[in-house]
Specification:
The complex is a heterodimer of chains A (about 600) and B (about 375). Chain A contains 13 helices and 33 strands. Chain A is of the alpha+beta class. In chain A, the strands form seven sheets. Chain A has an eight-stranded antiparallel β-sheet. In chain A, strand 10 and strand 11 form a beta hairpin. The model of chain A has no long low-confidence stretch (mean pLDDT about 90). Chain B is globular, with a radius of gyration of 21 Å. Classes of the chains: A alpha+beta (about 600), B alpha/beta (about 375).
């Protein structure tokens, strides 16, 4: 079927988390007749259980809709549902680059949030036509006028350009479809030139290998042709090509202006990088598209099976997850305290949580994850520079000239009454305020330069708690910066627990160490013997607490049925102990490894 | 093998007791109970042929309660004769009955001796009036002393129960134990008071009417008792049991090493053929089951190998025989540190808990169980 480019529109939906993006997408699929009745479920495009449960989108989900516009004929609408979260910033930017237009969706109750603004800027950078949409107008608490004002301030549109819809009831969805046709430009590009396509996502399919999601800007690609990628020079044969409904629909070819997929046969998704440019081996285009960056992990954490027998299972699970997630990195690691495990790298905190949850849920693993940390750049006395993503492996101080840590620009949008609290928790975490502006009479946008490590430890939770959940956060890596950082070790009965080592600012080391010791004292249950907990920088012990030994703890009578009762109790306790890790002769509950998260500053 | 018969009748209910028992009973109910015990024995004989196997003689029969001395002597004789009828008895066969000082009379003692009972376990608990009252015992110190004398006069082997609980003074407690030993008690069971759910003691503790002893004081009393009895030549052989050499309870010795025993009566447990069963606690339910010709079991614990292994380990750990070090899971216990801190000793490659170790035994067991299962 030859493509009628004039009647094609490629667009995406951008929204802050929870603003109803996926539900609105459901209505579009329904209204265009793309999916019917049974095929639709809540958040149809979110295929992972985790996505549905948390109401978030993790992977891109393109879908092609044929929409019969009254009096204007059938149009092909390609919707690219994008991950909304800051962790997937780069994926979002690639999805945007595959479109000509974007629906900027804002919740009628919550109004503009940090991610709304961030994604808006991103869309503007890609020169997309932006259609402002206020969603959830059916809600009682909807504040349509107020959100309209925000939109007008934000993008300088006219009030009548703003569409009012309800993804839940379907109100305004027809007008929305018409607006897409009216306002989003049709794709351009010559189908007869050498092909040039953008890979905006990639998934792994066990039957056909890595499947690249592509937007073709020029040229035509056919099944069976040899393609190559610019980034890594790899070549593949097109095993299958086509476009998306809920499933993939195979076609003969894809041509300029279209959104679809190419099955590459690659055995590893890392060979097919998001953002890379695809062309033909025989008839290549001049050069790649702009904007290709390799996804780089920003947050690291050690992951260990609580039961050492699960090490191989964890290894296998990580391999499987990585097949579908090129941004996940890991390498083997050994901890004196936790045994064999992996140091994993993630795009951000949400990415980390998702991976941990999937490992536990889909692969039935019991994990201990160490405190998340960042990658430090260590300038050594000899002038060389090392990267360190595991605090316990920091070189000895005597070799270190300087430690540099990643700094992010964190943008917080908060109701004005919480400004003081937001500034306080940010300063406590070594933040430097760089900007503050009123978005309207109610809400303030504050920006900080903040060490990423402080952010990953507990900033987001803290922010949510001091603003009663109203603040939103977005952040972006800016630079590495030196500071007076030291390594704080925790010793239990004299043994260093490498998994609890963290890097802190020298000025905070003492109070930090003391609070950590106190927290650990609460978290480590009494044992047979006294347990000594110490915090130390180098050989200097900064703080010490002790967990007393158990006192009386005896079942005096053990006759008849008591024996069964006793044994069953022990069997039950054994279950609880699965979450304990043994360090020397001390049993340490899993929460203790994350004690830092629970320390009040 | 051994037999345990539970006699659920009491003159009154002790505040801490959570066993199957009732204070409401008349002669006809007691007679019906004895009939039912005999009927249960018959059912057990039918379901298990080896009971009468000559190669597995009966080493011990134990009558617990409740209060076996609430039973009329004739009923007791009838019950024992019926249960033991045709069973091969070991040369050192021991027949113990529990009794309360207030219901053990000279005539009961005579009748019991005739019925073959050769060992008495007397529920004294204390000789302090306020402590007896707190425990809900009907007995006063004078009656308790008289009971002790009668028991020691009538039976060669006498054991006495004591409780470590609130209101005790160390010196008084130790004096009481000396006094009992002087009167002829050769075996003591000394329990630390435990508060069980549903008991009146629990309610009184919750309402603040009873203050339990702080752990530290309980520990001190327990350690003092161990030391004191040892000085009288009465050595500890299990967490709560003490005896002159050779006077250890065969009943205890039978089931701690996991030998089979048969349990009869309401709330009784038995261990037979790799399974542990528990009879209905409720007298009426137990009666109804037996009288309709069914085994009166309310719970069966099918013991698999790991369960048996674990039970052997924890039961052996409770005794002064201890466990072979090689049977402990690797790395489970910091053996040197435990020796330093006085929790256990190691001799002839066996790890033996000290009395201090016994006080921490739940933690030690948890630790072993965590690594064994």
């Amino acid at each position: 079927m030859a493509l009628n480019r004039d009647k094609t529109r490629n667009f995406c939906i951008i929204a802050h988390i929870d603003h109803g993006k996926s539900t609105l997408a459901d209505r579009l699929l329904e209204q265009t007749g793309t999916l019917k009745g049974k095929q639709l479920q809540e958040q149809t495009l979110d295929s992972m259980d985790l996505e549905r449960e948390r109401g978030i989108t993790i992977k891109s989900h393109p879908i092609r809709m044929d929409y019969d516009s009254p009096g204007r004929g059938v149009h092909t609408l390609n919707l690219i549902d994008t991950p909304g979260h800051v962790d997937f910033h780069y994926e979002v930017s690639r999805s945007l680059a595959a479109c000509e237009g974007a629906l900027l969706v804002v919740d009628a109750v919550q109004g503009v949030q940090a991610q709304t603004i961030n994604n808006l800027y991103l869309a503007m950078e890609h020169d997309l036509t932006i259609i402002p949409v206020i969603n959830k107008i059916d809600l009682q608490a909807a504040r349509v006028d107020y959100v309209m004002e925000q939109f007008i301030d934000l993008i300088g549109c006219d009030p009548d350009e703003i569409l009012l819809v309800s993804g839940k009831t379907g109100a305004g969805v027809d007008e929305l479809l018409e607006a897409v046709i009216d306002q989003v430009p049709a794709p351009t590009g010559d189908p007869d030139l050498p092909p040039r396509g953008l890979i905006f996502d990639c998934i792994f399919d066990p039957y056909v290998g890595a499947v690249a999601y592509v937007r073709l800007f020029q040229g035509t690609v056919q099944k069976g042709e040899k393609i190559k990628l610019f980034g890594n020079e790899k070549q593949f044969e097109v095993g299958e090509i086509g476009w998306f409904r809920l499933d993939r629909i195979a076609q003969k070819d894809l041509s300029a202006g279209e959104v679809g997929y190419i099955a590459t046969g690659a055995k590893d998704v890392r060979d097919v990088r998001v953002g890379d440019t695809v062309t033909l081996v025989e008839n290549p285009c001049d050069g790649p598209l702009e904007g290709y960056v390799e996804a780089k992990p920003m947050v690291f954490s050690g992951m260990y099976p609580t039961d050492n027998d699960q090490y191989d299972d964890l290894f296998e699970a990580l391999q499987k997850l990585q097949m579908n997630d090129a941004a996940l990195t890991w390498e083997k690691e050994t901890s004196a305290a936790l045994g064999f495990g992996f140091r994993c790298g993630f795009l951000g905190l949400l990415h980390m949580e998702i991976i941990q949850e999937r490992l536990e849920r889909e692969y039935d693993l019991n994990l201990i994850a160490t405190l998340p940390n960042v990658e430090y750049e260590i300038l050594l006395k000899d002038g060389s520079v090392e990267l360190c993503e595991n605090p316990a492996l920091l070189p000895d101080v005597k070799y270190i000239e300087e430690i540099r840590e990643p700094i992010v620009r964190a943008a917080v949008i908060t109701p004005k009454e919480y400004v003081g609290a937001v500034i306080r928790i940010s300063l406590e975490r070594r933040g430097v305020q760089t900007k503050m502006e009123y978005l309207d009479t109610e809400r303030v946008n504050i920006e900080f330069d903040l060490p990423l490590n402080e952010l990953v430890v507990d900033y987001y939770d803290k922010l949510k708690s001091v603003t009663k959940g109203y603040a939103s956060l977005d952040y972006e890596y800016t630079r590495n910066q030196a500071d007076d950082l030291v390594r704080l070790d925790i010793l239990i009965n004299g043994d260093m627990v490498d998994a609890m080592t963290c890097i802190v600012h020298r000025d905070n080391a003492y109070s930090w160490g003391l609070k950590l010791c106190q927290k650990l004292k609460e978290l480590i249950p009494r044992q047979m013997f006294v347990v000594a907990i110490q915090a130390a920088v180098g050989t200097r012990v900064l703080a010490r607490t002790t967990v007393k030994a158990f006192r009386k703890n005896v079942t005096a009578k053990c006759y008849g049925g008591d024996i069964s009762r006793k044994r069953k109790l022990l069997e039950k306790q054994k279950e609880g102990k699965k979450r304990m890790k043994q360090v020397g002769s001390v049993e340490i509950p899993q929460e203790a490894f994350l004690a830092v998260l629970k320390v009040e500053r | 093998m051994g037999i345990y018969i539970h006699v659920p009748f009491c003159g009154s209910i002790c505040s801490y007791c959570h066993f199957a028992r009732t204070a409401e009973h008349g002669a006809s109910l007691r007679a019906r109970y004895v009939d039912a015990v005999l009927a249960e024995m018959e059912l057990r004989r039918q379901s298990c042929a080896v009971i009468a196997d000559r190669r597995r003689p009966l080493h011990t029969c134990y009558l617990g309660g409740g209060t076996p001395s609430e039973l009329e002597p004739e009923q007791m004789q009838r019950m024992l004769a019926g249960v033991l009828d045709g069973l091969p008895l070991a040369d050192d066969f021991e027949l113990t009955a529990e009794a309360n000082p207030e219901s053990l009379s000279a005539s009961v003692a005579n009748a019991w001796r005739e019925a073959g009972i050769d060992r008495i376990s007397l529920g004294v608990q204390s000789l302090q009036p306020d402590v007896l009252q707190l425990l809900g015992r009907q007995c006063d110190p004078a009656t308790a002393r008289a009971g002790l004398d009668l028991a020691c006069r009538s039976f060669e082997r006498v054991s006495a129960d004591w409780i470590i609980g609130p209101g005790l003074r160390r010196a008084t407690l130790l004096d009481e134990l000396s006094e009992a030993a002087d009167r002829g008690v050769e075996h003591f069971s000394v329990y630390i008071l435990e508060v069980h759910p549903g008991t009146s003691l629990e309610r009184r503790v919750q309402r603040g009417q009873v203050r339990l002893l702080p752990d530290r004081q309980t520990e001190e009393l327990y350690l003092a008792v161990v030391e004191h009895l040892a000085s009288l030549g009465i050595a500890q052989y299990e967490v709560a049991n003490f005896a002159r050499p050779g006077a250890e309870s065969r009943h205890n010795r039978n089931y701690w090493p996991h030998r089979p025993w048969l349990g009869l009566g309401p709330g009784a447990h038995g261990y037979w053929g790799r399974r542990r069963y528990g009879n209905h606690d409720d007298l009426q339910q137990w009666l109804a089951a037996v009288e309709s010709g069914g085994l009166p079991e309310s719970a069966v614990d099918p013991l698999n190998r790991p369960a048996i292994r674990l039970e052997r380990l924890i039961l052996a750990l409770r005794t002064k025989k201890g466990v072979p070090v090689e049977r402990l899971p690797a790395g489970a216990l910091d053996i040197a540190r435990g020796q330093e801190e006085g929790l256990w000793t190691v001799s002839a490659d066996r790890l033996i808990l000290t009395s201090l170790g016994f006080l921490r035994i739940d933690t030690i067991e948890e630790r072993l169980a965590g690594l064994t299962l």
